[in-house]
Design brief:
Helix content of chain B: under 10%
Mean pLDDT of chain B: 86
Radius of gyration of chain A: 26 Å
Number of strands of chain B: 24
Low-confidence stretches of chain B: 4-28
Largest sheet of chain A: 4 strands, antiparallel
Order of helices and strands of chain A: HHHHEEEEEEEEEEEEEEEEHE
Shape of chain A: globular
Number of domains of chain A: 3
Strand order of the largest sheet of chain A: 1-2-3-4
Oligomer: heterodimer
Structural class of chain A: mainly beta
CATH superfamily of the largest domain in chain A: NTF2-like, domain 1
Distance between the termini of chain B: 147 Å
Number of helices of chain A: 5
Low-confidence stretches of chain A: 23-43
CATH class of the largest domain in chain B: Mainly Beta
Radius of gyration of chain B: 38 Å
Distance between the termini of chain A: 67 Å
Number of domains of chain B: 3
Order of helices and strands of chain B: HEEEEEEEEEEEEEEEEEEEEEEEE
CATH architecture of the largest domain in chain B: Sandwich
CATH topology of the largest domain in chain A: Nuclear Transport Factor 2, Chain: A
CATH architecture of the largest domain in chain A: Roll
Strand content of chain A: 35-45%
Largest interface: A-B, 44 and 46 residues
Shape of chain B: rod-shaped
Chain lengths: ~375, ~290
């Protein structure tokens, strides 16, 4: 019995390891790969699915040379721009992200070309992000190669962009400690709209806040749900679903999520907006161009557009927050999304913000604000 | 036997004289408290009697114990009487006697002056208020009625002068904000004591927000005319102006700060564009720019 148990365990382990190598799998989650992706083995170049799988696995492992072997050179892409496409640059969100997994699926395959759709799962400092890419593969001789779109590394010509600096200084008063000697009022901010909706994930409180003051404000919005007996059910904050730094007269949407709470149990909502005086810069100015409601490749409703950096300062991580309104001008949804590439001076980057299906039909208008994070201080 | 009775007599006489002397001390301990003393001044208490005793002082922010000679006056240092209020004085020897010593605030030394708000839009009725509290040098609120003079002025001179008498240690005023966006200096004075505060009078919401614009090689440039409030004050730089363009390519928005009095934004689009402008909840005019030829 003493000998039998270890033998059984060793055999079971060996069988499971064998199954793992034989079974068709992908790199997501466990990190187990198919034989084609194992380092030192070449992919089965006769199968477009395996070629793409191998390419993405090598990307995931940051084995760029191996990954680039699976890319067709027909469109003149070079390895440096291929790498930058995946690695990111300029302190962008992509440069802090890692490809955690991918789900490829064929759209159509013929003898000479194939169209694959792959969902890429990224882990990022702002949480998991998914994006969808359509990849075209062609047969080159006996091997399949991915036709990777040539990534244009943004090139900004050398120039001087004049900036009028705006700055707010706080004079904190003299050394006397008497009452009133150091009184500076907090910025005056006001919630100008609010709505509560039920979603599959829980209750959502959303609306807009305006800085009515003449100084910049750091704003947080908290909401407390109260039940019929007057007891608090839950308290949450808007976290990153708000543009925290508001310049004078600036409006930001906010959204507070209450997971797993139904609105039918809520009698009242207590809003608590807090504002404090912060140093802030009036730059960069980011324009939101070509905003349109549309459907993405997966048929989901999205608001997409382009961000244009009108300033001379690189925005490392742009963050888009959009508020959506119904025909009566009532706010019905707030959504946000991070742009994975840095927004260089005088250049554009596209963005897309997903809208839940249940809301898409109600939306008649929208407003987008851009929150920005710069490594040199936001 | 005779000796025994003599000894007993001597002991009883001693006891009696001791009891008699004790009763004499207790009856003499009638504390004579002084009139209320100003904070920081010495106070003298007379206990009467003779012999040694223990003196206790319990008051706001202090509790002290010391040995005293009951035949002498008990002097309490002004250092121990800095806080205005009632102090409990106890003197104990064979028994204890107590009294209350009242300490009043000293003469005014400083003014705590609270002015609200620190920023106010121009031309708001009853928008500025201030409260002054006179304190002595030990931070005791002086509650005796005093006349405090409030003066409000800008760089151009005094705009308002108002005198108010303190009630229970507080005097206050309320007034409207001025008409021009500038620093309003508010001074409260009491004799040669004064305190100054600053209220920033700021422009109100933009008024008659108007934009102009035109096509460039790459798109559209729009800018506001100098942005003022309805009283003609320039809206401060940094105030966000939101430009919105609607055209065949979709909607474009730019949140641009006012710099040097105007806000400017560059927008893409080569079709017929309708551009609107807003600042906070205030809307401006609409501008139509034709398609690029």
């Amino acid at each position: 019995m003493r000998i039998l148990l270890p033998i059984v365990l060793v055999l079971a382990t060996a069988v499971l390891m064998g199954l793992a190598f034989i079974a068709p799998g992908h790199a997501e989650g466990t990190g187990m790969e198919t034989s084609a992706a194992i380092s030192g083995l070449s992919p089965d170049a006769s199968d477009p699915e395996r070629v793409l799988h191998s390419l993405l696995t090598n990307v995931q492992r940051r084995q760029w040379d191996a990954a680039f072997q699976g890319v067709s050179k027909s469109n003149g892409i070079d390895e440096a721009s291929f790498i930058e496409d995946w690695k990111g640059a300029d302190g962008s969100l992509r440069s802090f992200s890692a490809l955690e997994g991918f789900d490829p699926r064929p759209l159509h395959i013929t003898n000479d070309d194939a169209q694959m759709r792959v969902v890429l799962h990224w882990s990022t400092p702002v949480g998991p992000i998914q994006n969808v890419r359509d990849v075209h593969l062609v047969r080159e001789g006996d091997a399949w190669k991915a036709v990777w779109p040539k990534f244009q590394i943004p090139s900004v010509p050398a120039q001087v962009v004049p900036v009028t600096y705006l700055r707010w200084d706080l004079v904190s008063g003299g050394s006397e400690e008497l009452w009133g000697s150091r009184n500076i009022d907090s910025p005056n901010v006001r919630i100008i709209s609010m709505n509560a909706v039920d979603t599959a994930e829980g209750a959502v409180i959303m609306g807009e806040v305006v800085n009515e003051d003449t100084i910049p404000a750091f704003v947080t919005v908290n909401a407390i749900l109260i039940d019929a007996a007057g007891n608090p059910i839950d308290e949450e904050s808007s976290f990153d679903k708000i543009d925290h730094v508001l310049l004078p007269k600036q409006v930001t949407p906010y959204r507070v999520d209450f997971p797993d709470i139904a609105l039918k149990n809520v009698k009242n909502v207590r809003m608590d907006e807090k504002a404090s005086l912060v140093p802030a810069s009036a730059d960069p100015v980011i324009g939101v161009m070509n905003q349109k409601l549309d459907s993405d490749a997966q048929g989901k409703a999205v608001l997409h557009g382009d961000l244009f950096n009108e300033s001379g300062e690189t925005v490392n991580i742009p963050h888009v927050i959009a508020s959506f309104y119904d025909a009566n001008g009532k706010i019905v949804w707030v959504a946000d999304g991070y742009v994975e590439r840095a927004l260089l001076p005088q250049s554009s980057e596209s963005f897309a913000v997903e809208i839940p299906k249940s809301m898409a039909g109600k939306i008649q208008n929208f407003h987008v604000v851009v929150n920005h994070y710069s490594l040199e201080g936001s | 036997m005779r000796r025994f009775f003599v000894l007993v007599g001597v002991v009883l006489a001693g006891l009696c004289s001791g009891i008699a002397s004790l009763s004499a001390v207790c009856s003499a301990q009638e504390l004579r408290m002084p009139e209320p003393v100003p904070a920081g001044d010495d106070a003298i208490i007379s206990a009467g009697g003779s012999g040694k005793g223990t003196f206790y002082l319990i008051g706001p922010g202090i509790s002290r114990k010391s040995d005293v000679n009951l035949a002498d006056d008990i002097r309490i240092s002004g250092q121990d009487l800095r806080n205005a209020g009632a102090y409990l004085v106890i003197v104990c020897s064979s028994s204890c006697e107590s009294g209350t010593l009242y300490v009043t605030p000293a003469k005014p030394y400083s003014l705590a002056f609270i002015v609200h708000p620190s920023r106010v839009p121009v031309a708001r009725n009853d928008a500025v208020s201030g409260v002054a509290f006179p304190f002595d040098q030990y931070r005791n609120l002086v509650r005796t009625p005093l006349d405090i003079n409030f003066e409000l002025g800008t760089g151009k001179g005094s705009e308002l002068s108002h005198s108010a008498r303190t009630q229970e240690g507080a005097a206050w005023f309320r007034t409207s904000s001025g008409k021009s966006a500038e620093i309003l200096k508010v001074t409260a004075s009491l004799g040669d004591i004064s305190a100054e505060r600053a209220v920033q009078q700021v422009a109100s919401d933009p008024c008659n927000l108007r934009i102009t614009g035109g096509r460039t090689k790459t798109g559209i440039v729009v800018q506001t005319e100098p942005v003022h409030d309805c009283a003609g004050n320039p809206v401060p730089d940094g105030t966000i102006i939101t430009f919105t363009a609607e055209g065949p390519q979709g909607k474009a928005t730019v949140d641009a700060p006012i710099k040097k009095g105007i806000a400017r934004a560059a927008m893409e689009g080569n079709g017929m564009e309708t551009i609107s402008v807003a600042s906070g909840v205030v809307m401006g005019n609409e501008l139509r720019i034709g398609a690029q030829p």
